[in-house]
Each structure stands twice: as structure tokens, then as C-alpha cells.
Amino acid sequence: MSATGTDLTSGTPEVADVGTSHDASTPTGTSAASPSSSPLSPAETLPAAAAPVLLAPAAAVSVLLCLGLVALGVLALREALLGREVAGTVLVPGEAWFSPLLGSATSVVPGTVAVASGAAAALLGLLLLVLALRPRRVRTLRLVDPTGSGVPIDLDPTAVGDLAADTALADGEVGASRAHADRRRVGLHLTVDPRDSHDVAALTTATLARVDLRLADIRPTPRVRVTVHGARA
Amino acid sequence: MSRGVLALDRFVLAVLGLVLLAAGGALVLWGLGRWPGAPDELDLAALTTVPDAAAWPWALGVGGLVAILLGLRALVAHAYRRRVRQVPLPLAPGGAPEAAPGGRLVLDLPAAARAAAQAMEREAEVEQARGHVVVDRGRTVVELVARVDAGADLARVRTIVDRTHAGLAAVLPPGTAQLRVRLDVRRARAENARVA
Q: Does the domain at residues A143-229 carry the CATH identifier 3.30.70.1350?
């Protein structure tokens, strides 16, 4: 006996049940084998995942090092085949690059070059150590459930900026709005009609109040800064 | 990329960093003449004869080949994404999947994720939704991405998400996966109509 998810979900009436069941303990018609009679709550059966994170700096540096290693290997292989002939044809023409490097210095004495090279190596080592230990950064903000029971909803900073910019447009005085946002701040730029007179302070306060309310359930709650353009001085 | 590969990345970078830090520090001390007992000159003359050795091209060739293979293997390990397709279902409520005699029942997890996304899409507030399964930090995660208008009622969106969550939880066996919901926000308007 076998029942795949395709059977359960590919356009059959059960599809609707997947998303429209109000109660996890109510049988949804998916299958008799479905664990719908489980006494567990949705949060226990299907807990919320951790917030998405950016690529670790260590992984990014490692990929670059891997590419460097491949390039170094190709160069070494090239030099190994340099000047070799197969059926009268030179496989790889050109000059050697590694061999002259080995003969470029016969001795090293203490001095400025040694100190500078050592300092550069130590700095690079320190940088690699920091990158190796640096944790992955969370890349989204979360719309939390005020009751604390629901799944948090992730939003990119750009999405939060768009929510704020759209909220600002609710004021008829505002002609256009755009936002730039990161995980901590939202910068709102409002454009008003320069032909009309505007109370910039009142507009800023009203917009801030409206946007703060709109973003109240977002964590970490971003700091909003409003700039008004086009108003007469 | 798995957690093991990331751990290896961190370990290799840390070792490389420590070696560079120690070697660089030693070179600075030696260069400043503050390393008592260290030789006044490093003789590198022996290195100049290395390219003349008969084994030099072979060493270069084998070394180069090993570097290429090692580099490519590491790149593949970084690009690898573990996929989860099917999860076992118990044949009877509360029963263990492996205890079923004469067959097995499996659930296509990506199909369940897509069905949940389709259910979200049927709501007026959601313009578009996608569902897929990823393995994030060792956990199987059902990821739903819903696109809503910037003016959407977030409380209503929250209700839709909660309903979808309950629906998926009713289908999936406990502990199978975790859920992540992401909102894509689309601005239908950037200007009010009266702008000149």
C-alpha cells in the first residue's frame, strides 16, 4: 500500500482542506492515516522554524579560497606540461611562472620588508580568525503574533519599508512616498506638492504615528525617520 | 551546504588564521631584531635548485591535480542542498511508520507545501504564494512565501497564516518539519492621484 503526497494534494478536493481547516483536531479528509486525531496543537506538530540567516562569512571566504585553489592547481598543471611534446606538437607553449619565483631570492635578512610582510600576514590571519568565528546574521524581521500562539511571519527589510511607505500615502497631503530600510531603521521620504502650504511638523508627527502603529507587531521594531521633500520653506 | 561543511569552513579558516597570525608575528619580531637567538639571515639558496630536480614537473603536476580536485570537491560540497521529498506516515493514528506490515504510507512533503500555498492563494489578500521544502541548519522546513499588497490588512494575513498552519499541522505527522512563512510585499501605488 502506498499513498504519495501527490495523490493527496494534486488538485483533489483534499487540497482545500490543507489550507482551510480551522481546527487541527478536525479530520480534513486527507486520509485515514493522517495524524489528524493527534491531541497536539499545530504549534507542537509543526513548530515555527528559526528566522532565515545570511550566508556565513566563513563560507563565503571558503568558496573564494576553493576557487583560488582550483586556479593555483590549473597554473601548476600548466607549468608541469610546459614544453612537453606529443606527436611533435608542443602541448603548452610559454614561460614558466613558479620556477623563477623559487630562484628570485637566495636569502632574507631582517629589515623593513620582513616587518611589513609579517605585519600583513598577521593582519590577514586576524581577519580570517574574525571571519571564522563570526556568526550568521538574521536577514529578516518578524511579524509576531500579539497573542504569542501563531507562527511568526518573516519579512525582508524592503518589505517592511514598502509597508511603511504605503501607510504614509494614506495621508492625502502626501503626493508620493518611498522608503529605504534595513533591519533597524526605516527611512521614509515623502514628497508633497510645493504649490500647497504644508505643516511639515504636523505631517511628520501624523505619519510617524500611523507608521509606528502599522509596524507595531514587527520585531525588532525598526526606528522610523521621516523626511519631507517639496514643502515651501 | 550542510552544517558539517560550515563547521569545517570555520575550522580551516581559524587554523589558517592562527598560522598566519603566529608566522606574521614571528616575522615582525625577527625583522625588528627582537627575537633573541634567531639567525641573522635566512638562507634560501637551497630553494633555487628545486626547479632543476627531475621530479619537479611531476610534483607540480600531481600537486596541481590534487589542488584542482580538492577545490572542486569543496565547491560541490558548498553548492549541495539536501532535499526532502517523502516522509513516512503512520498507518494507524499513533502508530510508528516502520511498524506497518505489508507496506508503507508516505507523504510527498513538497506537494503538501505546494497545496498549502495554493490554499493561501485562494484568499483575497494573497496575490501569489509558493511553497517548498528546504533543509535549514539541519532542520526540514516547509517554507511558504506569500505575496501581498502593501496595503493588506496584516491581522487578516495573520489569520490566513494561522489557518494554513493548522491545515498543514493536521496533515503532517508531528515532528516531521518546521514551518516558515515569509511575506513578499508589493506596492501597487507609490503616488497619490493628485500629484502633478
A: yes
